[in-house]
């Protein structure tokens, strides 16, 4: 910008006839950058400069030239540009979420807040740091001593971590300007306790958390990890006033990882080559999408049926039950879960902040999908990016899978009605 001269007027400039900023402003010795030309245009209200108008693709210019000359155009010149075709295809694969609205703030660096510095919260914070996902990490908790201790412990590891500013406070003002707020605060799940039994103990807590986060970060994306995650994600959405695409829960992202791992063990393949989803409630009424499981791009059940290889439905249900009970087993053995959910949540953060547009089974507003009519948050395969939830994949379900998903939705909606949060 130091080479850009300062101008007071351009009264004699006829910008519509110029092809470049050098012609438009003769005193410029160096060709300005796109940013400099845009600043000049804004400064002198040069909104009609030819060199700021987007150039049409070559194919479209050819069509225009042919039309002007009266000569017939070939099929190649009238075909749709690849970008247009890509958009149409994407519309088939994904369905937009309700009231989707992109974030309005643009700035360098990323700030992530983690609310709750328990075992899960710190596992997420540690994974976010080691994966270099943020330039500033804010921690919030009501236990001041533990909060400061965790902050200092991370700061003392600065020599072994990427350059990241780490702050902590019981005051939510420390979260101001957060791109993503991860909520892990909540009552710990007891041995044998259903996730749905936790909701009453966590409802009042969220009323003191969510409004504070959106007060200081109105453009943030809320990622709820606290259980029961589906109902609490719905509550966070209601309390925040944010569009639904900017509120999501960790949902069955971890369940699906466990599902893939168990299937890989049964088939003796690498889990990364297994494509499989658990959808619906993160809990007892979750739905395993057996019909869409594939290994290396090969649909498993379709292949077995085509090759007339018998399989027992009980075996499939055993694998699904193992997925549901795996968290309970960890809680029974060590008292809590932490590392797996830490990596799972960090993978969601990574997809958002790096705009990877990866598909994750996360808790989203499910109304309008697969016949669901109520305002409930359930896990569906969703594409994530800087805008939060970019869309939901149109994965075909069998009649039985659709029925189970709707039963899961009705069960959660029933709890919401009992709590009076509908």
Automatic annotation (TrEMBL):
Pathway given in the UniProt record: Fermentation; pyruvate fermentation to lactate; (S)-lactate from pyruvate: step 1/1
GO cellular component annotations of the record: cytoplasm
Occurrences of domain Lactate/malate dehydrogenase N-terminal (ranges): 110-249
Chain coiled-coil ranges: none
EC number: 1.1.1.27
Keyword Coiled coil belongs to the record: no
Transmembrane regions: none
One GO MF term attached to the UniProt entry: L-lactate dehydrogenase (NAD+) activity
Ranges of residues in domain Lactate/malate dehydrogenase C-terminal: 252-410
Chain intervals for the UniProt region annotation (Disordered): 62-81
Keywords: NAD, Oxidoreductase
GO biological process: lactate metabolic process
Catalytic reaction(s) noted: (S)-lactate + NAD(+) = pyruvate + NADH + H(+)
Record-linked CDD domains: LDH_1
Low complexity bias locations: 72-81
Record PANTHER family: L-2-HYDROXYCARBOXYLATE DEHYDROGENASE (NAD(P)(+)) (PTHR43128), L-LACTATE DEHYDROGENASE (PTHR43128:SF16)
Similarity comment: family membership: Belongs to the LDH/MDH superfamily. LDH family.
Protein name stated in the entry: L-lactate dehydrogenase
Organism of origin: Picea sitchensis
């Amino acid at each position: 910008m130091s080479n850009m001269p300062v101008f007071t007027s351009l009264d004699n400039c006829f910008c519509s006839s110029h092809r470049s900023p050098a012609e438009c402003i003769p005193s410029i010795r160096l060709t300005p950058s796109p940013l400099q030309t845009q600043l000049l245009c804004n400064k002198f209200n040069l909104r009609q400069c030819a060199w700021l108008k987007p150039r049409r693709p070559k194919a479209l210019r050819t069509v225009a030239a042919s039309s002007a000359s009266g000569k017939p155009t070939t099929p190649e010149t009238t075909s749709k540009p690849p970008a247009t075709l890509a958009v149409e295809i994407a519309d088939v694969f994904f369905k937009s979420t309700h009231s989707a609205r992109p974030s309005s703030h643009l700035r360098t660096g990323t700030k992530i807040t983690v609310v709750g510095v328990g075992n899960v919260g710190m596992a997420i914070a540690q994974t976010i740091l080691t994966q270099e996902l943020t330039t500033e990490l804010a921690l919030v908790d009501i236990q001041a001593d533990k909060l400061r201790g965790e902050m200092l412990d991370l700061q003392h590891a600065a020599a072994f971590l990427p350059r990241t500013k780490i702050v902590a406070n019981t005051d939510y003002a420390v979260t101001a300007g957060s791109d993503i707020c991860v909520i892990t605060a909540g009552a710990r799940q007891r041995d044998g306790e259903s996730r749905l039994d936790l909701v009453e103990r966590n409802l009042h807590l969220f009323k003191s958390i969510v409004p504070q986060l959106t007060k200081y970060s109105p453009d943030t994306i809320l990622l709820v990890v606290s259980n029961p995650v589906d109902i609490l994600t719905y509550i966070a959405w209601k309390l925040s006033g944010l569009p639904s695409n900017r509120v999501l829960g960790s949902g069955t992202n971890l369940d699906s990882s466990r599902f893939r791992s168990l299937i890989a063990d049964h088939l003796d393949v690498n889990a990364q080559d297994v494509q499989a989803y658990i959808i619906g409630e993160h809990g007892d009424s979750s739905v395993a999408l057996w019909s869409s499981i594939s290994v290396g791009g090969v649909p498993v059940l379709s292949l077995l049926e085509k090759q007339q290889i018998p399989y027992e439905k009980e075996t499939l249900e055993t694998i699904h039950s193992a997925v549901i009970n795996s968290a309970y087993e960890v809680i029974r053995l060590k008292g809590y879960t932490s590392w797996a959910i830490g990596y799972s949540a960090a993978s969601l953060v990574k997809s958002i902040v790096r705009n990877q547009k990866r598909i994750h089974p996360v808790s989203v507003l499910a109304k309008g999908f697969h016949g669901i009519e109520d305002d409930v948050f359930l896990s569906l395969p969703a594409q994530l990016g800087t805008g939060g939830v970019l869309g939901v994949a149109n994965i075909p379900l069998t009649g039985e899978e659709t029925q189970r998903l709707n039963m899961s939705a009705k069960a959660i909606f029933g709890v919401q009605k009992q709590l009076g949060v509908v």
